């Protein structure tokens, strides 16, 4: 899976972070911004989620018999489903040939039956799905406990000057755990 476009904004802004840390100068703005990106990415990795809208591409070799669960939640939309042929050419799969379920977690794509797609899973073709995941494109759309966990992670990075010791305190874990995607 590869990220085609990272989030355009972060779930917190520098003013919120600086107010929490009681920093009144601008000397550490770039450092705090880097801590924010690191904290968001760490939280997303732990959760299996995208917090702010992001464009991803998921590539795989064989379509499963049932629904294909996308590896990032929450799913906002599927932009394209592509068949990449053995010779390197690709073709878009008509959206009438599949169904997208974005209300489930994780979101999934299901091929509609009776459309002659069985040979695709047996060939050497591969598939790519371009999709948008995240709670939305505004920080306020990210659940408050996740935003607070990121704020605490940034504070821990700042206090420890970037080492990862104790960044995931019990409080941070308790804020993140209810949102963690568990794969069975």
UniProtKB/TrEMBL annotation:
Concerning InterPro entries, the annotation shows: Phage_CHP, Phage_gp6-like_head-tail, Phage_HK97_gp6-like
**Pfam families named among the record's database cross-references:** Phage_connect_1
Cited NCBIfam families: phage_chp_gp8, put_DNA_pack
User: What is this protein's name?
Assistant: Phage gp6-like head-tail connector protein
What species is given as this protein's source? Answer: Iodidimonas nitroreducens
Ranked from the top, the taxonomy reads: Bacteria, Pseudomonadati, Pseudomonadota, Alphaproteobacteria, Iodidimonadales
């Amino acid at each position: 899976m590869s990220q085609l476009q990272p989030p355009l904004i972060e779930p917190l802004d520098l003013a919120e972070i600086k107010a929490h840390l009681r920093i009144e100068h601008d000397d550490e703005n770039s450092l705090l911004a880097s801590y924010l990106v690191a904290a968001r990415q760490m939280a997303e990795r732990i959760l299996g989620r995208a917090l702010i809208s992001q464009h991803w591409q998921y590539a795989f070799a064989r379509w499963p018999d049932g629904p294909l669960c996308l590896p990032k939640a929450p799913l906002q939309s599927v932009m394209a489903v592509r068949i990449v042929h053995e010779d390197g050419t690709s073709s878009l799969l008509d959206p009438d040939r599949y169904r997208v379920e974005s209300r489930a977690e994780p979101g999934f794509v299901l091929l509609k039956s009776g459309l002659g797609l069985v040979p695709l899973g047996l060939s050497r073709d591969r598939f790519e799905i371009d999709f948008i995941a995240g709670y939305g494109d505004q920080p306020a759309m990210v659940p408050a406990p996740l935003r607070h966990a990121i704020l605490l992670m940034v504070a821990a990075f700042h206090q420890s000057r970037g080492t990862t010791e104790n960044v995931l305190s019990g409080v941070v874990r308790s804020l993140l755990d209810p949102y963690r995607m568990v794969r069975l």
